[in-house]
Design goal:
The chain is of the alpha+beta class. 50% of the residues lie in helices and 14% in strands. It folds into four domains: 4-275, no CATH class; 282-416, 3-Layer(aba) Sandwich (Glutaredoxin); 417-734, Class I glutamine amidotransferase (GATase) domain (Rossmann fold, 3-Layer(aba) Sandwich), CATH 3.40.50; 743-850, no CATH class.
Length: 881
């Protein structure tokens, strides 16, 4: 049994030795500064997320420096000074000495890591991090360092030179760090790498399998240390035999530990983890548990998962989470959910089976050995019961796995689906050849049918009617839609003054103010013109039925942009909706449609208002920031022509005047009434682009850098109108977007000032141009009023004046516009410099603040030691100057 007082004596001796000189503090300071620079690099500010993701990405590399620096003298200095012989003659066992030394280097590393917590202080100063995730991350850092410390000590026991021990420590520690990057490495090798084991910790999860991995690595290297320090007991004649014997023992121990980790990770401890995220993102939600509990045991749900046995490292976590969640589903539901996992290889019998059920290989991009390549992988599932079947073709990295599985199970467990009607309009949302992704998504939960507006719409058939671009309807069609709305039936409407989704390099078609396109492109030029839109695309009957106002030629712009990496690359008409904009009700917290949402993106949207004196309830759902304004049709568009479709189009003007009106413009609203005589239940959204295919594709296949709530918004709106609230909470279940609030506030002020200066530049240019035109008008009036001139002379003089002044005005206009453009460009450049300066200031601050406590403590210890030395020296021995 190890004796604690002996271990503590060795521990105290080594810790005192490490911190008695300047070198130990110097290593800590370098470690803290390097960590700060990695944590708060340029990419950190570009992503605008208050997390330690940048540090986590490079932390294993940082351990390659700090671990050998701490451990290089653990045994090497003892051998060099000859104190190892004295140490081993003490009344202590080899294990007690080894344990004391290990605890000493662990204490040194823990102190260094504790000083790096100043990074968290800086993070809290400039943002709002999730401290649960921070705790799990630092616990992972500590475990990883603790495991590698035993490897560094093993390097030190091999030599008497601290320098050689440092180099050997780097080499040995590099094995578990870089093993996943080897060209021959597969999933198994990646699972044994430090980066892979740290992944869960950095997301806020503490898995028992990860703890077991680090403990196993520590135990194995600890055993190697013990073997080498006990080697002095071997007789000289048996060195070779004993060495071979212990080598075999070490190999056997390694095999046992690896096997134990695989067994425990795959079977015993999979899913056993602590979820430290603020939103408990990695624990099954109450919604999921409730749906699983309500599955009829006589009509179980079958889940067949088609998986590639080997997936790129970018999809390893998704695959692992999918398998783990399904096993948890099965555990909670018992026999009511049966699982079948199918490993699919290309061109195999399993691949044919997957194809028959609608699951095909998906090409994904991965980086390997510095090269980006494309691979086809299977990662889909079929959820079925005796009632129904749902196919999930692919689980992308941004797809919420728990939501997809829970919704599919809940859908097939019900005997009957609700029906959604898709109104036929010029948007062609549900054409067989080009079905929009929103329809495909709705089919996973509802029965979806196309609805013709040419006749009266069945009032009892549809739970919700979806109308996209109703401004394209003819007068008889609009009459049928308005009549359906007046019956109080649930309707979800998307209309748009400038539907960017229908844009090409030649401009936009299908805008409400444009005429209906001729069918057939060029071939349709000889056909009669299509019927006109109802009231020229103004939705007049529909708006009157809802007591709302919407201008079909008016778009909203907004300065708010929470993504610094997009600065200057997206127009202000791309609207980022978020409470971070300063508008607390950007998402209405009282509506189940928008409560809990974090960010949406709209493009060239309109604004909707309630009419005065209306007896209908107008509940705003989406609002812009107050740094926004409106533009009229003629201010932002110019006429064009699309030669690919032989149809007229409208294009954007390069120079678009933006005048801030300081209002939070409403982009979507829920209009309701409980009055029996005037029932209404309609959600009106003044933008179509928010349901474009891009958002659905990004949600399924993107790298998850952008997490817009567009898809949940649409699905929530349909569910709320249909009266199905089962999945509302689950859909919004993701981490709170924790941005760099302090940086955002300062940069927002810069951009607000820029807009005001741009407005002044435009106004000044307009005033100068009007002054030039006014001079022409005055001179013209003088000639016309001059009675001494004959009519013929006046006519000639006016003609000459017209030509001369026209040239002058044209030149003046060109000069004024050039000057205006130069002023605006200079304003933009100055604003970007101010933004970059703000980021550099916080970057500098983050590099300076963290090492201060370590520097202060080092100076205090150094001064204290110097004082103690001088205090013990006799005064008559001091040199007097």
């Amino acid at each position: 049994m190890p004796r604690s007082h002996v271990i503590f004596a060795v521990f105290k001796r080594n810790v005192s030795s490490y911190f008695s000189g300047v070198l130990g503090y110097l290593f800590i300071i370098v470690f803290v500064v390097a960590g700060s620079m990695l944590a708060f690099n340029t990419q950190f500010f570009a992503e605008n997320v208050a997390s330690l993701d940048q540090l986590s990405r490079w932390f294993p590399m940082l351990l390659l420096f700090i671990v050998p620096a701490i451990t290089m003298g653990a045994w090497a200095d003892e051998k060099k000074l000859g104190t190892d012989e004295l140490l081993f003659t003490l009344p202590a066992s080899d294990f007690e000495i080894l344990l004391g030394k290990y605890l000493a280097v662990l204490a040194a590393y823990s102190i260094a890591l504790a000083f790096s917590l100043m990074d968290v202080v800086v993070l809290g100063m400039i943002g709002n991090p999730d401290y649960g995730v921070i705790f799990a991350t630092y616990f992972g850092y500590w475990l990883a360092g603790a495991a590698l410390l035993s490897a560094g000590m093993f390097a030190s026991v091999l030599t008497r030179s601290a320098t050689v021990a440092f180099i050997l420590g780097v080499v040995i520690c590099a094995i578990p760090i870089f093993i996943g990057y080897l060209p021959i490495a597969g999933d198994f090798a990646r699972e044994l790498s430090i980066q892979e084991q740290l992944r869960d910790f950095t997301t806020g999860v503490v898995p028992l399998s990860g703890i077991l991995y680090f403990v196993s690595l520590t135990a194995f290297m600890f055993y190697l240390n013990l073997v080498f320090i006990t080697k002095r007991h071997w007789s000289s004649g048996r060195q070779t035999g004993m060495g071979l014997q212990f080598a075999l023992r070490a190999i056997c121990l390694a095999v046992i530990l690896v096997s134990w980790n695989v067994l425990a990770g795959e079977a015993l401890f999979r899913g056993v983890r602590g979820d430290f995220t603020a939103e408990k993102l990695y624990s099954l939600s109450p919604t999921t548990r409730e749906i699983l509990d309500h599955i009829d045991k006589d009509k179980p749900v079958d889940v067949t998962v088609y998986l590639s046995p080997d997936v790129p490292r970018e999809y390893v976590e998704t695959r692992k989470r999918l398998v783990g969640l399904l096993r948890e589903f099965s555990r909670i539901a018992g026999g009511r959910v049966s699982l079948r996992f199918v490993n699919v290889e290309p061109s195999s019998k399993e691949a044919e089976e997957a194809k028959l059920v609608g699951i095909r290989p998906v090409p994904v991009t991965t980086e390997r050995d510095g090269r980006r390549t494309q691979r086809n992988i299977y990662l889909g599932a079929v959820v079925s019961s005796s009632f129904d079947e749902v196919v999930i073709p692919f689980f992308g990295r941004a797809l919420p796995v728990e939501y997809e599985l829970t919704r599919s199970v809940g859908t097939v467990a019900n005997e009957k689906r609700l029906t959604i009607g898709i109104l036929t309009t010029d948007a062609q949302v549900m054409t067989p050849s080009a079905e929009w992704q929103v329809v495909t998504e709705l089919k996973k939960q509802y029965k979806v049918e196309q609805v013709s507006p040419d006749s009266k719409i069945d009032e009892k058939k549809y739970s919700v009617l979806l109308a996209v671009l109703p401004s394209s309807l003819t007068q008889p069609q609009m009459t049928n839609l308005a009549a359906y709305v007046k019956k109080g039936k649930p309707v979800l409407i998307f209309d748009d003054p400038y539907p960017y989704v229908f844009s090409s390099r030649f401009g936009v078609r299908n805008a409400p103010r444009q005429p209906k396109p001729r069918p057939g492109g060029m071939m349709g030029m000889r056909s009669p013109p299509p019927p006109p839109k109802a009231d020229n695309g103004k939705d007049t009957m529909l708006l009157r039925a809802l007591d709302i106002a919407w201008d079909n030629g008016e778009v909203v712009w907004d300065l708010f942009d929470p993504h610094p990496k997009f600065a200057g690359s997206v127009p202000e008409e791309f609207l980022f909706i978020s409470p971070k904009s300063g508008t607390r009700t950007a998402f209405n917290p009282d509506s189940p449609v928008t409560a809990g949402m974090q960010e949406m993106l709209l493009a060239f949207a309109g604004t909707v208002r309630s009419r005065a004196g209306s007896d209908l309830t107008f509940q705003p759902l989406l609002r812009t920031s107050k740094r926004s304004g409106l533009m009229k049709w003629e201010e932002f568009t110019r006429q064009g022509f699309d030669p690919t479709t032989f149809q007229p189009s409208v294009a954007l003007r390069d120079e678009r005047p933006r005048v801030m009106d300081s209002f939070s413009h409403v982009l979507a609203a829920h209009i309701t009434s409980k009055d029996k005589a005037r029932k209404r239940n309609v959600i009106f959204v003044a933008d179509i682009d928010l349901i474009s295919d891009w958002f659905f594709h990004e949600r399924a296949f993107s790298d998850a850098d952008l997490k817009f709530d567009n898809v949940p918004f649409v699905l929530n709106a349909v569910d709320v109108l249909a009266g199905d609230d089962r999945y509302l909470e689950l859909r919004k279940r993701r981490g709170t977007k924790r941005s760099l609030t302090r940086v955002e506030i300062q940069t927002a002020e810069f951009r607000k000032k820029r807009t005001k200066e741009q407005e002044k530049a435009v106004a000044d240019a307009k005033k100068e141009l009007e002054a030039a035109k006014e001079r022409f008008a005055i001179r013209r009036k003088e000639i016309e009023d001059d009675k001494s001139l004959s009519p013929r002379t006046k006519q000639l003089m006016l003609r000459n004046l017209q030509e001369t002044e026209s040239r002058r005005v044209a030149v003046a206009e060109a000069n004024i516009n050039d000057e205006k453009k130069s002023r605006i460009d200079a304003i933009k450049a100055r604003t970007e410099r101010q933004v970059r300066a703000t980021e550099r200031y916080y970057q500098w601050l983050s590099a300076v603040i963290p090492p201060i406590p370590a520097v202060v403590l080092g100076l205090v210890v150094f001064a204290s030691g110097l004082y103690n030395e001088r205090r013990d020296i006799s005064t008559d021995r001091l040199v007097k100057r």
